[in-house]
What we know:
alpha/beta, 10 helices, 6 strands
Amino acid sequence: MVVIIDESRLSDLRSNPRSPSVFAKSGLDGRRIVLGIDFDNTLARYDELFHSLAIERGLIHPGTPATKLAVRSALREQGRDREWTELQGLAYGERLLHAPPFEFAIEALRALHQRGCELRIVSHKTRFPARGPRFDLRQSALDWLRIHRIMDLEATGIGRAQVFFENSQRDKRARIQSLGCTHFIDDLREFLLHPEFPTGVQRFLFDPNSLDKLHESIPVITHWDQVRECLSRTRKFVDHDALPYRSI
Length: 248
C-alpha cells in the first residue's frame, strides 16, 4: 500500500489553531535535535492487523476489540501464548505491509526534517521470529519504510544508514546513546523507564490509545501531530527525571 498525502488535509492542519501542528513555526531552529524513533507500534500501526489475523485463524471472537492489546489479552486468557508469539512473527514479517503508518507520522517526519531535525529509527527487532516461519523481519521493516517513503533521504533525511535494528533492548539503549539522540519516542513504558536508559535523553511515550499515564517525568504523545510541539517545549536538555509531567 502506497500512502498519498492529501494536501487539503495538510492545509487544514496548518491552519487549525487548536492543533499543535508540526508545521507551525517553532523554537526548533538553531538547536541540534537528534530524534530517535521506535518502529513497531510507533511508526507502524498494528491494531487492525493483529485483530484480522487472529480472527482469520479462529483464535478470538470477532467481537474482541480491534486493538493489539485486546488480542494479546484474549489469547493469554486462553493460555495461548504460543499462538500469540506466532501471530507476532506473522504480523511483523510476512504480513507487515498490511499495517498502515500512524496518522500524520509521515507528514511529521517530513516537517521535522525540513526544520533541521536529524531523524534515526532504532528498533529492537531480531532478524527472524521466535516461532513460526523463518521470515526476515528486518527486511520486512525496510520494505515497509521504503514503500511509505519514510526511508527517503530527500523527504525525511532517513536512509538505510539511519535505520538500526538491535537484537535486545540493552543493545537498543546502547545504540540510542552512541547515536547521540537528544530525544526518543517509544510505545513501551518499561523501556523508557529502565534504569539504564541513557541519561540526558528526553523521553516521550507514544500512547495513541491513551492507556497509560506513565511517570511524572515523561510527556505522553497520543498522535504524531503533537511531536513538534513536544520538541519545542524541551528547549533545554536536562536529565530526564527533572522534567515535569506533561500530557499533551
